[in-house]
Amino acid sequence: MLVDSYDRVVDYIRVSVTERCNFRCNYCMPEKPFSWVPKENLLTFEELFEFLRVAIDEGVKKIRITGGEPLLREDLDKFIKMIYDYKPDIDLAMTTNAFLLKGAAQKLKDAGLKRINVSIDSLKPEVAQKIAQKDVLQNVLDGVDEALKVGLKVKVNMVPMKGINSDEILDLLEYCKDRNMTIRFIEYMENKHAQEDIQGLKSPELLSIIKEKYSFEDEGFDGHSPSHYYKLEDGYEFGIIEPYEDDFCKKCNRIRLTAEGHLIPCLYFDEAMSIAEFVKRGDIKGAALVLKEVVKNKPEKNRWGGEDDEVSTRAFYETGG
Ligand SMILES: Nc1nc2c(ncn2[C@@H]2O[C@H](COP(=O)(O)OP(=O)(O)OP(=O)(O)O)[C@@H](O)[C@H]2O)c(=O)[nH]1
Ligand SMILES: C[S@@+](CC[C@H](N)C(=O)[O-])C[C@H]1O[C@@H](n2cnc3c(N)ncnc32)[C@H](O)[C@@H]1O
Ligand code: SF4
Ligand code: SF4
């Protein structure tokens, strides 16, 4: 079992399979980075899987594939199948922008993927285009329909921004409610890669917009998720993720692995240790020692907004969010 120095069990790994993306979201990657990680520096799916096998043997029960845009990586279904075949009861999920999902959903489901979280920031084609800097909406909506059709469980993530998509909170909530998909509104997290003039909506602002039309109860946190959940009178649940808070850190169960093999103990800290050289030379014991070290050094909580206000300079498209 992987237990950190605050007695938290780490049983969730978020794996970013590429930092590349076919969108240029204004809050994440408005411009193509000056240079991408060279392809030869990426761990192969076989190498990533060898490492994940160790992690699963150590008690990991949940794996989320993310990116950049994970659907850009060729043979993703084969990677998913490797994990599924090794541990069929693992909670195997993916976070995606869904642009390429229509053609991939069935293959991913057949390979063993169980759930997807899709980012949808607008239901208006021109607003979606302004945010992603590409005409994306129809493909995304078709991707979601296909995912539901093939039986994948779907959640939606939206980043509400003042003057851009803040008038669509209820529309997106209702789009999700009609399809029985949970929506989580993520407060915009400042980072040095985003467009400078963005102002995100905070939780009280979001709640007061929803209150104009719906009554709801506060359900608190669900398990280990950073999402705070609320329940409408008809039982539909929506969530809000407030990254500047740290109450959910007490129950944190996750670490992150980047496409180049950096193991990151916390979203907000720049420290990371590499497993790359170990897995490349087949030294699985060495990789397991790095895993234990990273878990041991996991910080108690983020320090965003605290006295010593530590701000991560690492981009979300690198860490996988
Ligand atoms: N502060 C903080 N935010 C996180 C963490 N994990 C996820 N988030 C935020 O939640 C967003 C959405 O996460 P997802 O990729 O949908 O994954 P998830 O919330 O673990 O998904 P579920 O397993 O469905 O609960 C991320 O982009 C982050 O903004 C975390 O460990 N700390
Ligand atoms: C980095 S993306 C990777 C997966 C995929 N490309 C997608 O967009 O779903 C993962 C999540 O991070 C969120 N995200 C990225 N930058 C963010 C920011 N600055 N503030 C809040 N959420 C952010 C996105 O909305 C998305 O839900
Ligand atoms: S949020 Fe996702 S889709 Fe948008 S630029 Fe970042 S990685 Fe790409
Ligand atoms: S901010 Fe760090 S400690 Fe808190 S939930 Fe996220 S990864 Fe865990």
UniProtKB/TrEMBL annotation:
Protein's name according to its UniProt entry: GTP 3',8-cyclase
Q: Name one GO molecular function term.
A: GTP 3',8'-cyclase activity
Q: Which residues bind [4Fe-4S] cluster 1?
A: 21, 25, 28
Give the family, as the similarity comment puts it. Answer: Belongs to the radical SAM superfamily. MoaA family.
The Radical SAM core domain, residue ranges: 5-217
Q: In which pathway does it act?
A: Cofactor biosynthesis; molybdopterin biosynthesis
Q: Which UniProt keywords apply?
A: 4Fe-4S, GTP-binding, Iron, Iron-sulfur, Lyase, Metal-binding, Molybdenum cofactor biosynthesis, Nucleotide-binding, S-adenosyl-L-methionine
- Provide the binding site for [4Fe-4S] cluster 2: 249, 252, 266
Per UniProt, the cofactor note for this protein states:
Binds 2 [4Fe-4S] clusters. Binds 1 [4Fe-4S] cluster coordinated with 3 cysteines and an exchangeable S-adenosyl-L-methionine and 1 [4Fe-4S] cluster coordinated with 3 cysteines and the GTP-derived substrate.
Q: Where does GTP bind?
A: 14, 64, 95, 155, 254-256
Q: Name the positions where S-adenosyl-L-methionine binds.
A: 27, 68, 119, 189
Decide whether keyword Mitochondrion is in the record.
Answer: no
InterPro entries, per this entry?
Aldolase_TIM, Elp3/MiaA/NifB-like_rSAM, MoaA, MoaA-like, MoaA_NifB_PqqE_Fe-S-bd_CS, MoaA_twitch, MoCo_biosynth_MoaA/MoaC, rSAM
Organism whose genome encodes this protein: Sulfurimonas marina
Q: What is the lineage of its organism?
A: Bacteria, Pseudomonadati, Campylobacterota, Epsilonproteobacteria, Campylobacterales
Q: Which Pfam families match?
A: Mob_synth_C (PF06463), Radical_SAM (PF04055)
Q: Which SUPFAM superfamilies match?
A: Radical SAM enzymes
